[in-house]
Amino acid sequence: MNEIKKVTWRSPSNIALVKYWGKKKGVQIPANPSISFTLEQCYSETTVTLLERETKSKDIEMRFYFDGKANMAFQLKMFKFFESIRKDFPLLSQYGLLIHSTNSFPHSSGIASSASAMSALSLCLCDLQQQLDKKKVSAEKFLQRASHFARLGSGSASRSVYPLISQWGKTKTVKGSSDEYAIPFEKNLHPIFKTFQNTILIASSQEKKVSSRVGHSLMKTNPFAKTRYAQAESNLKEIISALKKDDLEKFGAIVEEEAMTLHALMMCSSPSFILMAPSTLSMIEKIRRFREESKLPVYFTLDAGPNIHLLYPKNIAKKVDQFIYAELEQHCESGKMIHDNVGKGPKKMK
Ligand code: PMV
Question: What is the DSSP string of 117-167?
Fold first, then answer.
């Protein structure tokens, strides 16, 4: 098969500080604004190759390989996604697509890979279409477009295309904010936060019992939804003021409140569900006690899963490491953890 063009993008995962949980009417429109740190070590690397088409039909021709192996479940998801964005990407009807994707982190680590995977794929598609169109687009517009299409694949993926920190969701608090795409937020970040470490403590690597898609939809009938959305707006405002200064204490209080609220919302959904594990709670108690005793700025957050994301500035990393290995490692599944940090955003590899 004749190869027409090929690109490879590496795109990281992100960890939300103010969480997106619940959607409004429309396609992947968030019910509240969110903000996240972009990670560095947890990433997806995706190569999209455009091939001469095998048939004359208008059907999408695509083969998807994850870690070098054909993956039907992913391929089906991808087909659906491509159908939904077909009118924006003529290349999907003009060429056959060969897609290879890998993750830097183990597939079964319990770490959500949709943000890194969908942002890497969107970057590849936007890049290829731009090359074919031979149109000059500013870097800013390119990333905005990539964020837009990443969002259609997975909401949180919209925030993975920018370095360090990214904000998504229309709010009066942030000029230029949008429900359609995320925006870069680096300019508002005090240098201390650029050094932030994120140690991911794997409490359990089992697949989630309830998907994010179902979790979001349960917010429609959650009795606390309205209060939650108002809280997210106010937490966003507060955390932005903490991020501009080096107000670590305020930053930590909001981040932990957001993590606990996210899981409380799950527990009071109907039907109720729990994504924390017993070891998640053991670690939370130890982190709070360690912070009280040591007076060090160490905070936790959680994604839609049982794993703890420990957040702290680099200048205390040695002391925090000692604490992790003495107190937390024993609660991790087979001692598993990933040392990540706030990162520089996606990178074109080829
Ligand atoms: O992008 P989704 O649909 O997988 O939703 C992600 C939701 C959280 O990870 C729990 C929070 C967030 O803002 O990333």
Answer: HHHHHHHHHHHHHHHHHT----HHHHHHHHHHHHHHH-GGGGGGGSSSEEE
| Residue 208 DSSP class | P
Pocket test for ligand 1, best of 13, 15, 17, 19 (most atoms within 8 A of CB): 19
Distance, in Å, from the CA atom of 77 to the CA atom of 64, rounded to the nearest integer, reads: 10
**CB-CB contact of 60 with 83 (8 Å):** yes
Centroid of ligand 1 to alpha carbon of 325 (angstroms) = 29
pLDDT tens per residue, the chain (350 residues)?
Answer: 799 999 999 999 999 999 999 999 999 999 999 999 999 999 999 999 999 998 888 889 999 999 999 988 888 989 999 999 999 999 999 999 999 999 998 766 667 789 999 999 999 999 999 999 998 899 999 999 999 999 999 999 999 999 999 999 999 999 999 999 999 999 999 999 999 999 999 999 888 889 999 999 999 999 999 999 999 999 999 999 999 999 999 999 999 999 999 999 999 999 999 999 999 999 999 999 999 999 999 999 999 999 999 999 999 999 999 999 999 999 999 999 999 999 999 999 98
Ligand 1 center from residue 156 Cα (angstroms): 5
Separation of CA 58 and ligand 1 centre (Å): 34
The helices-and-strands tally (H runs, E runs) of the chain is: 10, 14
Counting ligand 1 atoms within 8 A of each CB, the residue from 11, 14, 21, 302 with the most, and so the one to mutate, is: 21
Q: Spell out which residues line ligand 1, taking CB within 6 angstroms.
A: 16, 19-21, 34, 112, 114, 154-156, 212, 262, 303-304
Task: Residue 17: name the closest of 31, 33, 40 by CA.
Answer: 33
- Our mutation pick for probing the ligand 1 site, out of 216, 303, 307, counting the most ligand atoms within 8 A of Cβ, is 303
94 CA to centre of ligand 1 in angstroms: 33
Is the pTM above the cut of 0.85?
Answer: yes
Right CATH number for 194-341 from 3.60.150.10, 3.90.1300.10, 3.20.20.60, 3.30.70.890?
Answer: 3.30.70.890
The structural domains of the chain, with segments of one domain joined by +, span 3-189, 194-341
The domain 3-189 is classified under which CATH number: 3.40.50.1220, 1.10.1060.10, 3.30.230.10, 3.30.930.10? 3.30.230.10
Ligand 1 atom with minimal separation from the 262 CA: 10
